Amino acid sequence: MMSELTAVSCTPNWTELTPETQPSGRATASMAFDTATGQLILFGGNNGGAFTNDTWNWDGTNWTQLNPTTSPSARQGAAIAFDPTTGQLILFGGFSFSGFFNDTWNWDGTNWTQLTPTTSPPPLYAASMAFDPVTGQLILFGGDNNGTFTNGTWNWDGTNWIQLAPATSPPARDSASMAFDTSTGQLILFGGRDNSPTLLNDTWNWDGTNWTQLAPATSPPPLISASMDFDQDTNQLILFGGFGGKSSTEFLGDTWNWDGTNWIQLTPPPPLPPARAGASMAFDSVTGQLILFGGNSNSGVLNDTWNWAISIPIAVASPPSQTIGSGSSTSISLSANIPGTAFSWTVSQNAVAGASSGSGSTIAQTLTITGSSPGTATYTITPTSPAGCSGSPIVVIVTVQPIEPPTNFHGEIKYNQFLTQEEIIHLLSWNASDDPNVIGYKIFQDNTLIKTIDNRNTDKLNLYNRMRNKVYHYAIVAFTASGESQPVTLNL
Questions:
Q1: pLDDT tens, residue by residue, 282-306
Q2: Could you tell me the CA-to-CA distances from 63 to 42, 75, 274, 424 in Å, in that order?
Q3: Is the pTM of this model over 0.90?
Q4: Same structural domain, 26 and 107
């Protein structure tokens, strides 16, 4: 996992994941990572026509529906967060057609258990909840109490809800975004909707005792139901989407990062999640993924799964190494785990000519050896994602073999009875080269070319008018379009 953006030369981006199984489309579902069980839990929501109470776990690749024997009733807009001091994944409140809830539940990895605190907040829909590791508090703020928005601040102590009494508080609201920013040590609350109802874009920080309104120079537009959580890998507090904007009536698909002082609008490259509100977002520290799921959009409820991450391309070469004959072309295909990845390479040569640096998705270069022994071309290939992220280089070694000569070169002497006794015939034969690039053979006599055979399958040659009592020095080479093999010699 990356703990700092400077660890790689690229920026994070959105990647749509393709799980084989997934929950139905829904908005305002409750999602949080349970550190005790290592599960990213999604519960309930509104599927566009009904409320649900199903429980799902994300494993980094797929969603799996769990089957607890007990569960909270169907609802949307319940607050959820993990409390590491008590080891509890706490779910509170929500809304369904049967009304507003103020029940408290704990997920233990298998079942939901309803807890019985002696004190509780009032029934609340769309309250905000997050754990503050600096103060050790599981903070619940605001929410809709049967049509009246609240601004109460509550702390869960593992057994009871304790209402706190900060000297300053944000105005009453529901549907605000809240998460702890590990990089700045701030518990940040953003936006929501007040009783007017007016959409808000104010930013607040909780210090354990009081709320302090911050004054960023730049901020997202007024929003409700934007998704927010801290990404431990990219070291960013990310806010995405929401409903509002300049017209206060549009779904948004903007991505923002809080840097401790200001909100910075990010511009990740496509593909991007469609505009939405009421999506569920949580960081999975087991898989290192900041997961965005579902939400409501202009086209209805969604059930797509996205990951915000530094997507590092992983290059694959096919084949991973190659052996070719001198004068042949390499044929190496390059691919990566991220569509649109570009590839560039450098190369070092040893007893080889023809290799060069380049770029593209295929390495096709004609290589020849410069001596009589095999040579190598070593390609170092670097992938670069569309977001500008360079992955780890891979190395492909191409071994270039000399052109394979014919074998078993031998000769016979045949006397021609119709000629004078001084003249004989030399019958030369050989086994054809197995090198598929060979296109023929050249025959030399005493270092002089006497015959070129343009047929790689030819394996014999008769030479007439040879003189008796003379030693002939023959040599044969196989040749390709770009070179020749080492000679095979014969004295006859």
A1: 999 999 999 999 999 999 999 999 9
A2: 9, 20, 20, 86
A3: no
A4: yes
* Cα gap 155→434, rounded to integer Å: 81
5 three-class SS = helix
Size of the chain in residues = 492
- 420: domain range? 407-491
Are residues 79 and 13 in contact, defined by beta-carbon separation less than 8 angstroms? Answer: no
- Residue type, position 323, single letter: T
Query: What does the pLDDT look like over 160-210, one tens digit per residue?
Result: 999 999 999 999 999 999 999 999 999 999 999 999 999 999 999 999 999
* Predicted pLDDT at 201: 97
Report the chain's mean pLDDT, rounded to a whole number. Answer: 93
CA–CA separation, 66 vs 444, rounded Å? 81
229 and 85 part of one domain? yes
On whether the CB atoms of residues 142 and 184 are closer than 8 A, the answer is no
Same domain, 104 and 245: yes
Domain identity same for 50 and 105: yes
Order the strands of the 322-325 sheet from edge to edge.
322-325, 394-401, 375-384, 342-350, 358-359
Task: Tell whether 233 and 303 lie within a shared domain.
Answer: yes
Q: Which domain-ending residue is among 401, 432, 451?
A: 401
Residues 302 and 367 in one domain: no
Please state, in angstroms and rounded to a whole number, the distance separating the CA atoms of residues 87 and 184: 24
| CA 478/CA 482 separation, integer angstroms | 11
**End-to-end CA distance of the chain, in Å?**
72
Q: In angstroms, rounded to a whole number, what is the distance separating the alpha carbons of residues 392 and 316?
A: 11
Residue 419 has pLDDT above 70, yes or no: no
Q: Which CATH number fits the domain that encloses residue 470?
A: 2.60.40.10
Neighbours of 121 (CB within 10 A): 24
Site of tokens 């969603």: 63
**Amino acid of residue 182:** T
CATH code of 217's domain: 2.120.10.80
The 10s digit of each residue's pLDDT in 242-254 is: 999 777 679 999 9
| pLDDT over threshold 50, residue 1 | no
Please count the other Cβ atoms lying within 10 Å of the Cβ belonging to residue 357.
Answer: 11
Geometric angle at alpha carbon 139, from 133 and 144, rounded to 5°? 155
